[in-house]
Amino acid sequence: MTSLRFQELETRITELEKHLIPSPFDPTGSYDDVVYEHTRAFRVLVHAEFEAFIEDRVIEVVNTAFSRWEYTGVISTSLLSVVAYKESLHAIPESLSDASQKKKYPDLKARVEAAKNEFNRYVRTKNHGIKEKNILRLLMPIGVTEDEIDPVWLNLTETWATARGEVAHSSAKMQVRPDPQNEVKTVRQLLSGFRDVDILMTRK
């Protein structure tokens, strides 16, 4: 079953398609300039929705896992993985008297919470996109393995996100006119992949 956040994403993309993409499609594939402009806008806005979704979900997964561990003592794969991927490690005290110095030697809860917070900061401030490197940097630290990620979907995401960058950062005169029907088809394929990832994250 998909998460509430994924359902919000699905609804939002349906709304964007309704507002920006022509219906029905022209069988000749010929459109007025305004349709191509709307298709470019569709690509940029959908990219923003995908990026916001994946960021929100990984943070939701980790924060929920931390709360569960805090109250039940049961640690999930996602929380264990975030701690394992934490880049900075605290020193281990050499004596019990040293362990009382909480700033220098945080206890277990503080160390796990620091790993959670560090991951959350990265997601909110340093992630910029949904290319392959971005997706891996968000999913692997919450315990998603290479074997669980569809390489075909990941490659499609990389190609589409690169094309989105060209739309967002270059003049329309320099761009190939995006076909709205192909654009919608690609977005739906990407959305299907994000659905699979969403369901996968619920098990972490």
Commentary on this structure:
67% of the residues lie in helices and 0% in strands. The longest helix has 40 residues. It is built from 8 helices and no strands. It is mainly α and 204 residues long. About 2% of the residues have low confidence.
- How large is the share of residues in beta strands? under 5%
Low-confidence stretches: 92-96
Q: How many β strands by DSSP?
A: 0
What order do the helices and strands follow?
HHHHHHHH
Q: Which structural class best describes the helix and strand composition?
A: mainly alpha
Average of the residue pLDDT scores: 87
Radius of gyration: 21 Å
Shape: elongated
Characterize the main sheet: none
Helical content band: 55-70%
Head-to-tail CA distance between termini:
14 Å
Instruction: Tell me the number of helical segments per DSSP (H or I, 4 or more residues long).
Output: 8
